[in-house]
Design goal:
binds alpha-D-glucopyranuronic acid, 6-stranded mixed β-sheet, about 700 residues, alpha/beta, 8-stranded parallel barrel
Length: about 700
Amino acid sequence: MNLFRPYCIQLLFWIIVWFFTGALRAEDGYQLWLRYNKISQPKLLSHYREHITEIVIQESSQTFQAVQEELRKGLSGLLGKEIPVVSSVSQDGAIVVGTLEQSSVVRKLVGASELESVGAESYIIRSLCWNNRMVTVIAANQPKGVLYGAFHFLRLIQTQQPLDKLSIQQKPQIQKRLLNHWDNLDGSVERGYAGKSIWKWENLPGKVDTRYKDYARANASIGINGTVLNNVNSQAEILTKDYIEKAAAIANVLRPYGIQVYFSIKFTSPMEIGGLTTADPLNMSVCQWWKEKAREIYQDIPDFGGFLVKAYSEGQPGPQIYGRSHADGANMLAEALKPYGGTVMWRSFVYDISIDKDRAKCAYLEFVPLDGKFASSVFVQTKNGPIDFQPREPFNPLFGAMPKTPLMMEFQITQEYTGQSKHLVYLAPQWKEVLDSDTYANGPGTLVAEVVDGTADKHTISGIAGVSGIGTDRNWTGHHFSQANWYAFGRLAWDPSLSSEQIAEEWIRMTWSNDPQVINPIQKMMAGSWEACVDYMTPMGLHHLMAEGHHYGPQPDYVHPGRNDWSSTYYHKADANGIGFDRSEKGSNAVSQYHQPLRQIWNSPKTCPEKYLLWFHHLPWDYPLASGITLWDRLNMHYQKGVNYVTLMQKEWDSLQGKIDPGRFEDVENRLEMQHENAGEWRDTCLKYFGRFAETQEQCEP
Ligand code: GCU
């Protein structure tokens, strides 16, 4: 007996350790921000248990099934006990969930006029006293709104907000909030850094991966309501009967979560899979082929969203082959989708260098003359900047230049040019910089966000797309922190006025911890991570110095054998006389594509903000900046500053050891180490290369 006792004590000790470190065990990031771990603070827990005792649901659609499942899963996880689902209020703490039309309880609790005014996807969450019972109502006009409301309610608990006196009314600012998958039909993902495509085309439609549902849950939780399943560099096969059936199986899983599916289409599909001899958008047989195709798709996918098109760009065919315009092509597709309410998203990512030698000017020159010529269901989908998702670009001048056309914003969530899945770079500040930029299109205060949400030009449709960074990696995005970019994209798509700090805090609380000792260091890391990336890659307006092909590391000396505008040297133009692309009036005059006063401010190196200086100007190495420092010295400072920030991020992260589950901790730790090494390589390579010119010049001076 005595011999046995020490073992028992030891065993007990380990059980206690196991129990209390439960939160720190085996997390792999699969659950994203929907972790629903039990609240550990007793006071908070009892507050929530008091306010949540039962879920009252009177509806039974597929979406309500999803609402019920999520609330049960979330609330039982967070509260550590089962919360029953009932059909009428029986006690204090009832959570009444429903639509005005279907739920008699909701009708009694919320005024019809109040709900009607909030729109299809909107919702209300409110604390009420009803028949002497304390209840919370989550109400909407449509099941989808209720689903969004349910996720919002869960988020309140996940982020530890009080539940008494709730009075929330939410409405999305932008209607179409889409992910764009650049997923190929062979399972590879263009610019994907998180494994293979999650769409298992080879198994569909028979076998439907359980992951699709978790994908839908995650997206619905942040309000994403559409997904383009395949790459913009499209293959005609996506429109074959087989693939339509496969996509229909995915659509069936996403539908209850309010997510429509869309296809990227190849313009020459009528020839490649339809046996026609032309794809001319003005040819009757071609128009008929697309109409038939649309009919076939809608038969299988009644809520199909529409087509995304990359035309006459980077090898993709377009109407120009037949001497037709972008508008001719887009309108033909719009006509085919019209009977079903489908949308066309026609990309403006074109840079036919025969139009202008400055690639940054090409899209504007092609598209602005077409303003007013697109059918009403066509969006022109436009990347945030005029080149290509560089770490920093001024906003794309098309925003504010096509008032008669709804412009859909395209951001890149996958980190093609920002360290891929190896660098921690929180992109919300980048997106905010763009959304908050003043275009001056209708006078001061016409923000890019207002062009996108349609209010600037009174459009009835609005949209935003994010190029997905999702793959089969267990944690979905490769880097655990890349999840934050997916999250932030959805939140900003819902409400572009949210701050990047607020979004980061929500995400940290849900993904890592509600402990301030965890929140603060991670906030700090994320807040400056984008600026740091700009600093150690392409500071002061430099751009496209990335290595050819993979776009990861630095290659400032790269010269493409065939295309000047695919060379790094084309963008930085460094020589003994200086560095930078002259886009002022004296140079390519790209500044003229912006409204006044931007045109004037950016035209002079004296008034151009330092962050865009070398985007718009070619300046001598010893150019004196306002601070008195030379351009070359300042460039050196930026590169070093970027590397220093990664060191700071490493320190902050190390302070979290023991406060974060070891699996995710080590993974991030290792990636930060790689990032540090790579940031140093960026600094050294770029400064060595530019130094060849800069330092020669200094020696030449008298
Ligand atoms: C970038 C990217 C390509 C992509 C293209 C696009 O150029 O490197 O992979 O196809 O953008 O947006 O179409």
